[in-house]
Amino acid sequence: MGILCQFTRTDHGWCCSTCGYTYPKPIPRPPHRMCGPVASKEPPPDPAPLIARLAEETKHPGKVGPELPPLHVQAVSFVTAIAQLAGDGFRLADKKEFDRRVAICEACDLFIPKSGRCSKCGCFGSLKARGRVWTCPEGYWDV
Questions:
Q1: Total tally of structural domains belonging to the chain
Q2: From 6, 53, 68, 97, which residue has the greatest number of CB atoms within 10 Å?
Q3: What are the b/e assignments for 92-106, b being 16+ CB within 10 Å?
Q4: pLDDT tens figures, 59-85
Q5: Closest CA to 6 of 38, 35, 28
Q6: Cα(15)–Cα(82) distance, rounded to whole angstroms?
Q7: Residue 85: which residues within 8 A CB-CB, separation 6 or more?
Q8: What are phi and psi of 97, to 5 degrees?
Q9: Residue whose C-alpha is closest to residue 97's, from 133, 129, 140, 137
Q10: pLDDT per residue over 82-136, tens digit each?
């Protein structure tokens, strides 16, 4: 792994103060480029191990906590929550109530820390805690 070029603006574009690479086009921001020779003799790293690791992590989100409910349950929960919020005039919980709700969510067994979501309804805890009319599906906090 290398470092990014340290570009400075010139009259004709951008120039790296470390490797001397010049980007000839006058664009607003410098380009992102790994510092070093223009053409590398080394082959790029094999992406297969990284892809395999990411696939494995994605396959087992339950290792960090419970899994999310089925998509149709999440959809019904979302539509219901939006209707409730609209019916309440889109009013939000005050800061003290919001902080209390978030603390309860984060301490709950149904909370998935990696995603910040509830495994009962699929909501994002910090978002659902914001709506004044919204309640916890397990009854841990209410209006």
A1: 2
A2: 68
A3: ebeeeebeebbebbe
A4: 555 444 578 888 888 899 889 989 999
A5: 35
A6: 51
A7: 131, 133, 134
A8: -65, -40
A9: 129
A10: 999 999 999 999 999 999 999 999 898 888 888 888 888 888 888 899 999 998 8
117: how many CB neighbours lie within 10 A of its CB?
A: 25
pLDDT confidence tier of residue 55, bands split at 50, 70 and 90: low
Cβ–Cβ < 8 Å for 108, 141:
no
**Distance (Å, rounded) from C-alpha 34 to C-alpha 45?**
14
In a shared domain, residues 71 and 123:
yes
> Please, which residues have CB within 8 angstroms of residue 36's CB and are 6 or more apart in sequence?
2, 19
Residues 75 and 32 in one domain: no
Stated pTM of the model: 0.53
Domain containing 72 equals: 65-128
Q: What contacts 135, CB < 8 A, 6 or more positions away?
A: 141, 142, 143
